[in-house]
Amino acid sequence: MITCVVEYVIDPAEIEAFERFGRRWMELVDRHGGTHHGYFLPAEGASDKAFALFSFPSLAAYEEYRTRFGRDPDFVAADRIRDESGCVLRYERTFMRPMLPEPPSPQPQP
């Protein structure tokens, strides 16, 4: 599994547009073989940082998903929200592999 972590610098005045943008991408990732773990938005104070995390079974699966960018009408429509609102000032992607907690060991029965 590979997880993409996207760090956004957003326009705080356009947070509603960013939320619309995020909802569309969550749907698209899930529809095209990934698992979206959500967007993480500023909660208090003045902040222009937001994050998104989503996973694909492999880098090859992610690359297949990426072939739709700029061509698939649903992908183009999602990007149009970002482009027309200016809600995203810049972003950076990092690929990571998750290390998840192991399930607890069964306790011996007395």
From TrEMBL:
Organism superkingdom: Bacteria
InterPro entries for the chain: Dimeric_a/b-barrel (IPR011008), NIPSNAP (IPR012577)
A Pfam cross-reference name: NIPSNAP
Stretches assigned to the NIPSNAP domain: 7-99
Protein name: NIPSNAP family protein
Organism phylogeny: Bacteria, Bacillati, Actinomycetota, Actinomycetes, Kitasatosporales
